[in-house]
């Protein structure tokens, strides 16, 4: 089974740019931003230093059945909506339950459920705490919701590797399919942490942009005036399956998954290795697995969170991998539009990479008005056409704890 070809046959997302993959992609190409002011009384009551975020474009309760929504944490709500869209987009594959798996991810888990339950306990006592609190807040709750929805019995696994989580879940899905554990896997990730505590905590770390006067311009990867990331939320799902299974059922194929790798820095709990050595190793390993040369990579969807330290560290890693050949690679940093979806970031950016290859169009990086001279990348600031022929692209994710994950995609 090892070495068989793996393809992407379905995509779905519920994001700050739209409630579906087509809407999100269209908004991304149009240069939209999902960042906006938070219209909640607790923003002013708690005097939060950051008063904006990239919230979901549509509230999930507006789409889900009321009883269903009440039994799910917000992150699980996003997950089900993204997975349902991806499954339908893939043509609702007919697959034995024992050959269908879930590889999911989150960076934090059910923080809304946890903190709301604590407020209920403190204010109203233990009898008022919901019986479903634990199964709603556990980090594997979204994977379990998807598993139950689609009767997936080939395993439902959850990765928790901070901002690298859902890229790692895609890497795991690739490995699981290649090793013959399943024929089809629903892979991706979710995050729903736009809550006053995470906002205050990230702000205390000096990780968030404080451009309260202009939220749409706040996330500005590679810009000399970048000052931190914008917290986002949502979920993204990709249907991965063996090419043999996809071809047998006549499925449309967006792209092929051709390599993946995971490494760790062993450097610092939050700061990336400034030299980018472990991140570079992840990229090199993923590219080598494809059987291609590094010079064959034409496009990179960068992690690029818009933090002063992180963007430069990733550039150093990229230069280690590509050297002077980096000038020939078109880079995009889509967190400028979506904000940083933490555990869902890698999955939504994988969708953008897949769409870039399928449509041969690199989406733009907005808000780049004065590129940092220390980061001399070829960054697409408007939609950029990719050349004809077979193409190779990578999507990078790096997370707190020194986690690095990379997935390589090729044209179908």
Note down, in words, how this protein is organized.
The chain has 412 residues and is of the alpha/beta class. Helices cover 34% and strands 20% of the residues. The protein has 14 helices and 15 strands. The chain has helices spanning 21-29, 41-45, 66-70, 74-89, 111-124, 133-137, 141-150, 165-178, 196-204, 243-248, 277-290, 308-322, 335-338, 345-359, and strands at 6-14, 36-37, 52-53, 100-105, 156-159, 184-191, 234-242, 255-264, 297-301, 330-332, 361-362, 378-379, 384-385, 392-399, 403-411. It has an eleven-stranded mixed sheet, sandwiched between helices. Strands 2-3 form a two-stranded antiparallel sheet. Strands 11-13 form a two-stranded antiparallel sheet. Strand 9 (297-301), helix 12 and strand 10 form a beta-alpha-beta unit. The longest helix is centred in the first third of the chain and has 16 residues, at 74-89. The protein is globular and about 60 Å long.
Task: Summarize it.
The chain is an alpha/beta fold and 412 residues long.
């Amino acid at each position: 089974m090892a070495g068989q070809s793996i393809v992407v046959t379905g995509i779905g997302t519920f994001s700050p740019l739209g409630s579906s993959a087509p809407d999100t992609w269209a908004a991304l190409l149009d240069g939209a931003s999902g960042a906006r002011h938070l219209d909640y009384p607790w923003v002013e009551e708690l005097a939060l230093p950051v008063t904006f975020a990239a919230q979901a474009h549509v509230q999930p309760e507006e789409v889900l059945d009321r009883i269903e929504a009440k039994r799910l944490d917000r992150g699980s709500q996003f997950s089900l909506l993204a997975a349902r869209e991806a499954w339908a987009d893939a043509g609702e594959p007919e697959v034995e339950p024992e050959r269908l798996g879930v590889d999911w991810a989150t960076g934090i888990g059910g923080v809304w459920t946890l903190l709301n339950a604590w407020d209920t306990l403190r204010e109203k006592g233990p009898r008022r705490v919901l019986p479903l609190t634990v199964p709603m807040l556990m980090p594997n709750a979204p994977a379990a919701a998807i598993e139950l929805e689609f009767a997936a019995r080939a395993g439902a696994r959850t990765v928790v590797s901070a901002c690298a989580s859902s890229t790692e879940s895609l890497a795991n899905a690739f490995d699981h399919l290649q090793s013959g554990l399943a024929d089809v896997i629903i892979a991706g990730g979710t995050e729903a942490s736009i809550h006053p505590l995470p906002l205050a905590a990230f702000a205390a770390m000096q990780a968030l942009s404080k451009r309260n006067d202009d939220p749409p311009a706040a996330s500005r990867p590679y810009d000399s005036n970048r000052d931190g990331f914008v917290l986002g939320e949502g979920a993204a799902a990709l249907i991965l399956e063996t090419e043999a299974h996809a071809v047998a059922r006549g499925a449309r194929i967006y792209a092929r998954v051709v390599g993946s790798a995971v490494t760790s820095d062993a450097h610092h709990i939050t700061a990336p290795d400034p030299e980018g050595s472990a991140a570079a190793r992840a990229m090199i390993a993923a590219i080598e697995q494809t059987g291609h040369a590094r010079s064959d990579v034409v496009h990179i969807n960068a992690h690029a969170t818009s933090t002063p330290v992180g963007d430069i560290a990733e550039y150093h890693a990229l230069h280690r991998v590509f050297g002077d050949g980096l000038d020939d690679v078109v880079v995009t940093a889509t967190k400028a539009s979506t904000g940083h979806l933490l555990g869902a970031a890698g999955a939504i950016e994988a969708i953008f990479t897949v769409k870039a290859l399928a449509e041969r169009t690199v989406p733009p990086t907005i808000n780049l008005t004065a590129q940092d001279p220390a980061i001399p990348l070829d960054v697409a600031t408007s939609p950029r056409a990719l050349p004809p022929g077979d193409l190779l692209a990578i999507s990078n994710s790096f997370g707190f704890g020194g986690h690095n994950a990379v997935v390589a995609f090729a044209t179908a």
